[in-house]
Amino acid sequence: MSSSPQDLSSTEKNHNNSALPSTDASEIFKNNEGKSPAQLQASGPDDKARFLELRNGLAGWQWSLFHLIVFFGAAISGYDVSNVSTIQLSIYQAFGRIDLLPWIVTAFSLGVSATSPTIDRIMKLVDLKWFTLSCWTVFIVATAVCGASPTIEGIIVGRIILGVAGGGCYLSLLSYSTILARPTEHARLTGLLGMGYAVGLFLGPVIGGSFAQNKHATWRWAFYIGIPYSGIIMVLICFVFPNVRLRPQEEIGKGLLQIDWVGAFLHAATLTLFDAACIFSGSTLSWRSGVIALWVMFGVVTIVYTIQQAFSLFTDPAKRILPIGVLSTRTGFLVMSASFCACSGYGPCTCSPYIGVYIAGAIGCGMLLPVVRRYAVLYLLGGILIAAGAGSMMSVNANTSLSQTMGISAILGFGVGLTMQLGVTVLALALPANIRMDNSITMTLTIYTGTTVSLAIAGCIFQNIGFGFLSDALQGSNLSNSQIHNALAGHESPVWAMLDPEALDDAISAVTKAIIRLFYISTVGGALMAIFALIMKWEALDFKHTKAETERGSQQAS
């Protein structure tokens, strides 16, 4: 493993001095066999040689550890998305400010989606290994800040920083997967990534709730528990990840100055204003008050951001903060749109059968894609399952059996698991080689923006509709608006203990009706995904690899 960043000149001139095996032109051509013309387009042999050497330089045990890093890195990311879902009431009891609880839920995903395009630009300028280690270091510090914070505002800030660093960690995982994995391996890594993310989503509420109910550990350990695991990942990265710069020809200082900082600010402002407008709509501010101003500001900033990106204002076309090169291709736009729709099914993720089949769907994605090859088929199947599962939830009420509810959620979960991470492999293999490395930021931005938007809209619907339903159901209970909002925070709210049996039944029915309304989001998302699948190119991805590659992989594994 090289101890310093590799650049093009060292690749071309210093093969004999490198710790990695040398590669001649004939071997490069062999490893290009079976790749689509789009992947070979506009890409010289230099980067191919560099990345091929990096992969060939990994021993079998290092490649095995790489899989562990991908799995546990994705699991920690999923855990930090969902770990606060069952400790909200404990945080409210510690600090009050029920109006700020939605920010704790969305802060992590917002931190990722609002800053990942900027983080991606920085990542491509510096040494990728040191960038990865830096992100994990900040991730650990932010985790400690969340756990030790004396105020709820401190937790929110810590969660946002956690998201910024977590986005960098996730981006680096995708970038190394794109660099090091061969086509068939990339599909398996995608399944592993999705499985790890799903496991983290499932364990978040379970572990968080366990700590919240433990009077000795308290809810703070729902954050602290991630620190040792992150430390272990950092140690493994030191031994596995090679040093490499994605753009060695660019000077770091000059590259930083050329980042589209205006676009970066507008991107972050757009998502933050949308999140704020959804959170404050109805739950904290009256619809007659400043919330209307928030929606107006969001609309204005969105228009300005769109114009700035469309006409490359204050930046060069190639330096725009959004991955326009991917968005401007038919495949890139439709795959991003379909993946965004998959995030609409995130809502019911705390249900165990949902997570189980989500994991099965993620594994199935990695196994089926190299066989089916036509990714549009999987998106069509996933869209139908999501729409069917979410649509069937409309028939659920407070008297519906648990087994029926779980069965319906399982259909939804398989559809989401099959498609949420599918675009990672599709874009890595189908995009032209000159924009292939934009695959990482494209999917990170899509998945986490989709999650942020889905959570924000779901929270807005639940707070508004749920408050209305619950108010009507408890008209004779003399509860204040604040107490009704408190009851919506969760079943552990003391308000539920104040209700008589008849009022309790009415309240449960009201909350159930409000929750069912959230599945409209998933129904629409699944239907749109199916439509996007129908207008995709029904092309077959090329997973062929040469006999030499297979033999070399077997030798490394042994």
UniProtKB/TrEMBL annotation:
Family matches, as PANTHER family: MAJOR FACILITATOR SUPERFAMILY (PTHR23501), MAJOR FACILITATOR SUPERFAMILY (MFS) PROFILE DOMAIN-CONTAINING PROTEIN-RELATED (PTHR23501:SF12)
Q: Does the keyword Transmembrane helix apply?
A: yes
Provide the membrane topology annotation: Multi-pass membrane protein
Q: Region Disordered: what ranges?
A: 1-44
Which keywords, in A-to-Z order, does the entry hold? Membrane, Transmembrane, Transmembrane helix, Transport
Look up the coiled coil feature and give its residue ranges.
Answer: none
Q: Which InterPro entries match?
A: MFS (IPR011701), MFS_dom (IPR020846), MFS_trans_sf (IPR036259)
One cellular component (GO) term of this entry: plasma membrane
Its recorded name reads Major facilitator superfamily transporter
Care to name a GO molecular-function term for this sequence? Answer: transmembrane transporter activity
Q: Which Gene3D superfamilies match?
A: MFS general substrate transporter like domains
Chain segments annotated as transmembrane:
58-80, 100-119, 131-150, 156-177, 189-209, 221-241, 261-286, 292-314, 321-347, 353-372, 377-396, 408-433, 445-470, 514-535
Q: Where in the cell is it found?
A: Membrane
Q: Where is the composition biased (Polar residues)?
A: 16-25
Where is each Major facilitator superfamily (MFS) profile domain found?
Answer: 66-541
Q: Which domain of life is it from?
A: Eukaryota
The record's SUPFAM superfamilies line, in alphabetical order, gives: MFS general substrate transporter
Regarding protein family, the annotation reads: Belongs to the major facilitator superfamily. TCR/Tet family.
